[in-house]
Each structure stands twice: as C-alpha cells, then as structure tokens.
Design a protein that fits this description.
alpha/beta; 7-stranded mixed barrel; globular
Length: 873
Amino acid sequence: MKNSSHTAALLDHAGRRYRMVDLPATFGARLDSLPIVLRLLLENLMRNTAGDERQAGIDAIFGWLDHGTSEAEIPFQPGRVLMHDTTSTPALVDIAGMRDALAEAGWDPALLNPGLPVDISVDHSLAVEFFAQRDAAERNLQLEMRRNRERYTFLRWASKVMRGVRIHPPGTGIMHTINLEQLATVVTTEERDGETWAVPDMMIGTDSHTPMINGIGVLGWGVGGLEAQTVMFGMPTMLRVPDVTGVRLTGRLRAGAVATDLALAVTQRLRQVGVAGDFVEFFGPGVATLSAGERAVVANMAPEYGATTGYFPIDGRTLDYLAQTGRPAARLALVEAYARRNGLWFDPGAHPLYTRTIEIDLDQVTLHVAGPRRPQDLLAHTDTARTLADLAFEPAPGPTAMPRHPVVIAAITSCTNTSDPRLLVAAGLVARRARQRGLRTPAWVKTSLGPGSPAAAAYLERAGLLDDLAAVGFDIVGHGCTTCIGNSGPLPASVQDALAHGYIKPVAVLSGNRNFPGRIHPDLDLGFLMSPPLVVAFALAGNAGLDLGRDPVQFDADGRPVHLRDLWPDAAEVDALLATALRPDDFPQAFARASLNPAWHGLDVPDTPRFPWDPASTALRRPPFASLAEGGQLGHYIAYPLVVVGDDVTTDHISPASAIPKDSFVADYLVGCGDDRDDLNVFASRRGNWEVMMRAAFYSKSLRNLLWPHAPVGQTLHVPTGAVAPIFDIARRYRDDGEAVVLLAGERYGTGSSRDWAAKGQRLLGIRAVLAQSFERIHRSNLIGMGILPLRMPPECAPERLRIAVGDRIEIDAPADAIAARAAVTVRVHRLGGTVEAYTAVAAIETRLEADLLRQGGVIPYILQQTIHQPRP
C-alpha cells in the first residue's frame, strides 16, 4: 500500500485515535453531489494511491459529475476476497499449477501467496438427496463429505500452505449469509506505518450474488475467479468510473407483501431500463422503511437486474442488524461515528446526482412470482395458471394422479430469501396454519428447507415452527445453496416416469434467484421464483396451474376449501414471533458449532508447497493453461464458427453445475476412468479437472446450436467433413488441422453465475473470439481473463439476421498492437458462395489492464510474468 498519511485526518472515538481519509474536509460541498458508492471509491483511491495517479483518479470521479458518465479508469483495492468451494477450487488449482510452473522454471513456488485475506465458504456442493425426514441434514452432510473428500482435502491443503486463506467448512452456511452475519464489519481497521486506520469494509467475491452485502452498507460486487486472482496477488482491479443508476424508493410495503416481492419487482423494472454494468444505489424516504434484511434481499438480485451493485447506505437499520446478529456494541459505535464523520451516513432527504434516476413506490408492490424461465419475467402470484396455459402443453393420456403442471420441486433455498429471518418465520407460519387444518403436501412434491445460516434452526425451533415446517415436508436438509445452484438431487421416481411418458410438464417453485431452463434440475425447464411462504403454499397445492387468488390451495378433511388468504400471516404476527425467538447469541454460537465439523477436520492433508497431483484422479488435474508457455490469441485470422447461439445464453448453458447425466458422454468418460455411473455427483464438483470440464462445455439440453440445430446435446458440426460429434472432439479436429474457431451469440451472452469455467472451457476448445450483441459483465471479464477477445457486434449481425450457414467463415483483424479499450475491430463474413461482407465490431474491453491481459493471453500468463520479474530468490 502506498503512503497516504498526508491525506489523513484523526478520528477520536471511545478513547481511541484512528487515522482516516476525511472526505468532507478534503472535498467540501462537492462531495454532496456524489452518489455514496462513488464516495466510497474516492476514499479507496485516496487511501491506496499517491501523486499523479491519485490526482488523475480524483479528476476522473469529480469529472463524472459533469455528465453522469465517464470513460476514465480508476484503480480499486478491496480489503478482502470471498469465494465458495466451486469457484475457489479452480482458482486454487490454477495457483497450484502456477506453483508447479514456477518451480520447474527455477523459482520458489511459495512466491505465489495471496496478498489479501481470502475467505472460502464450502456451500455449493450440498445436494438434496434426503428430504422430508428429521435426519435429512445429517445424512446429506455425510454424503457430501464422502463424495467430495478429495476436493476438500485439496482445499484444506491450500489453506495450510497459503497465507491468509481461511475456509469455512460444510454446514457453516451460504457464503453471502456468512458474510452478512459473521465476516462483514461495515467499518474496519487496518495497520499502516504503525498507526491504526479506520476504513470502510470493501470487498469482492467470486460469486455474482456478492452484492447481497450491499444491503448493510458494505460495498462489494462479484467478479470472476480469474479477476479475483489478479486482486489476490496484490494488483488493483481497474474499473471505468461507473454509471450510477439511482433508484428512489417511496412509500412502504403494503400488508402481505414481503422483501422477495420487492426484489422481483425491482429486477423486472431495472431489466426494462437496462442497467448492465451500472452501480445501482437506492435512496429516498422508502429506504428508511426497509430493514437491513429486506434490503439484502433486493441487493442480492443485482446480477438478475444486470447491475454490478445494488447499494443501500449505512444508517440505523444497519446498526440494528449488526446488533441482531451479535456484533459487539463497540463495533456499532465505530460504524456510526465513522460513517457520520465521513459523509457516508444515509440521509432519506438527500438526492445526489445520478446517471439516471427511476422511482419505485413500495405501496404498489404486491405478491409476485417470476418465471417460468427468467427472473425478470414478473407475474402476479395469481398468474402462474395463465402463463402455463399459454405454453399449450398437451399431456399424453396415461395413468397418473398428477396434474398437467405438477409442482415437483418446492425448495426454500438460497441466501437470497433465507438470510432474512422474517421470511423464514413467515414460511413457518403458513406451515403452522396448514398443519392446523390437517393439510399435507402431495406425494409427487420434493420439499426442502436449506437455510443460509445454521442459526435459523435455533430461532425456528424457539418459535415452535420447526415441527410445523416438518409436518408439511419442509425439514431442514442442510445449510448450503442446494436447489438454488442446481443441487436439487433426483426427482421422485413417479415424476421421472410420468415425465418420460409425456404425461406431465413439471414445474419447480423455489425461493432462489434464478430459474433458467435446466438450472434447477437438468430435466426441468419451468420454474417460478417466489418468497418462502409462497413456496410452502404452492407445495401444498402441488399444482402450478392453479390461480391461488381464486382456487383453494387444498381442501381439509371436512371438505372445506383452504385458500391462500387462510394461511397467510400478517406482519404483526411475524414481528411478535421474532421478538421472542430471535437471540443475537444464536448467530456466533451456531456458526462456531458448525465450524467444528469433525469430518472436515479429520481429513489427512499434505503440507508440501507443491500439491501432490494424483494422475488417476477424476476430481483434480493440473490445468494445461497454468503454464509459462501460454501465449495470446490476438491477431489476423479466418475462423470456422464452432457454435452459434441466440439470446440469453447463460453460464449454466456454457458450463453446467447440476447433476452429470448418467447417459452423457461426460459420464462415459468418467466411467472409463473408473468412476461409478450411479454416483457421478454434479458438474460443479469436477471443476478441478479440466478434462471433465472441457467435455462439459455447452452440455445443456436447453441450448440450441444454430449452426446445426438438430445436433444432439453438446455436439456440433465439423464443417470440412460434415461430421457431427461432441463439441470438444470437433474443436480438437480443428486444432489438429491448424484451423481457428470462434463463437457467435446474441444478446446478454453469459448471463448468470460468475463461474470462470464458462470461459476456461471455451479457451480449451480453442475459441479465439466471441462475437455477440452484448455480454453480461462478469462473463465478459472472464473471457478476457482467459485471453478470449469479446467483440460487440452491430445490430445487423445478430445471429438470426446474419444467418451463418454451413461453410461460412469469419475473418477477424485484431492485431495485439491495435487492441485497446473499445477499439474498432474489422470482421468479415466469407460466405460459402464467395461473397464477403464487412462489419465493424467494438472490442468489449473496458480498461488498459484488460487490453494487457489479452495481449499476454489472460490472467494466468500475466500473473506468472509478474511473478518471475521479481528478484530471483
């Protein structure tokens, strides 16, 4: 860190003296016009830079005020990094591979150590195999430890030999809930030159839902694992001074509406406006009416509305949350003193300058669901029947008691809607009233409750709601992402049979954040997002084709209809239960107990500076791109299109995370390596093995390859021979023949999760450039991180208009010395008939650092080159 003492002021608080960057004293009234997110970036800049670099950053941020937008770049240095097991595994495998490359070249492998604290939550590997039984959580955890033992041993090795890496074992909760309840300080301290500084808690995470922490005033956002690696090794992340969309909230939520409803309404509205890559900041009097838990639900959905952040400033509600989750009083006092002193405390009447401003009236928010295929497709909770009827599904005649659109998965899941105790208590009250009326869920519904925090069990039990939830099938199945990330486990056998015969078109309902086809379960392409209490109601109905505003949920034993209004709790009832059931000590104590996981601590872990790879492993393989020999892919070339896809291709399409189908060629490969076809686990568990993940690239039943639409799942056409085969096999043929390949896509390419394997898989396939109408922010960054050039094509080049035919080839003129942020790149389409069409694309590059990464060939070669230019030991 650079010396910044000459910018510092003193904060005397509670008998202690802190150094701090004093923004109001330094910038005066100009500060009031800046959104708070830009004030935080300004503080970070002042603290971590000096001289000309600092002055250029100050000029860039205040220059933003002239137009509400800017092309200028500034550095950002987060204070910590948060990862989960399936993003940290590939990142740490890369580091292990880079350590090998350094050692083989004569350098000390221990040179590669993170320079920032790195917290890793093991939360993405818990599958719902056991459910609707008291011991479901224990049995699922045992199965998780057995299936992932090798990978977890590797994670333990990394934490043992790398400085600053701390791992939170299975069972401790979902990463974003842990961040809210345990890790975040809002204001923290750091030592510099023998002095204690008070600074804002700012961080990045390798998960797209990292902005959940914005709900309590911590500035953080999601990045790809590749970008995180650069930050871990001491390099700042460079960003363009962001556009900031201000969302002014007025009014207050009406009776019956909950935070989920607001989050879904915000998602729809902001997707309509178009805030891709923006920082979103919530302001106005309505903010003050929302609890920190409610704010966190809205902030969590930032990637669903396309933004980098969804920020709520610090205020008394923040302090209430910190107290509720067991933070010491001294911490709360420092947060308030610092935020008020430094112009970071929320004022409901303030109206800073924003790039654009929209208004949302909380009074207008009603009960909502979203779906059945995208989180931005907002519906009234009564509209599922109409929406499903529009699909015009005609079931085959057959012997089934299930309705046309049965609810086959009903999951209270995800950090999004299980971190706020109000939502879980509301779900428990719906279950209680259903139990009192003698209702049960139909046999075809797979139910699960996976809270983000182990503290949930304590307050739900104290409220007497655990038994009520269990009575309608919602026993706790564990504390992890479960169904939200696609770890929903197998469908009931009766459902699988009816689905195979075409008797039903099944539906999932969940309190998660995404419902892309195939994400929740490979065989399901319909899903509705909703609040936890609505999940319970739809589970009891067992039929997504009902209008729950009119139709009964069920009939009781006396034949009387039970409607949703009979089950729905009021806010006063929820508040009364929370007042007696919630105890601040629950949060640290439950987390501490879960952290003692004996199976985790009993793993036999090596402590060598280089990881001892097992050549027979199907979980962990040294990656070929972690090499000093890797180079850039820029240049002038003519390429075959390997795959052509349309709009809204998600990272789930590109690199699936859910269960590995037993009948897939990926399964065949694993079985050929000695694995059990009936116990292959999920794709996400194989992210340490590049051989598996290369084969998994684009393996999605719901992905349509426009180059050869009738190709089987995960396959494409080899143009020169006309052969149709798995994509990885076709890519190898092109590579062996010395031919380049590219990919063409439509709008919002790479929406969804932050997984870097969506880019790594494309690099291993030899894809040199992706030509799309638009890119989602994190995937664009990951492509650059793997040395793949993202090109934003003009509207006339949308796949449905360009109509790439078999035999057409793509010429790209992108020499390394001409690549820069938003540079024009000439693209020519060579038609099979001999004509040539020329277009001008724009390199989807935002900063000089990104251009440098592309020239080097990506993040890993860049880090290795930076490392070997240090003095040789």
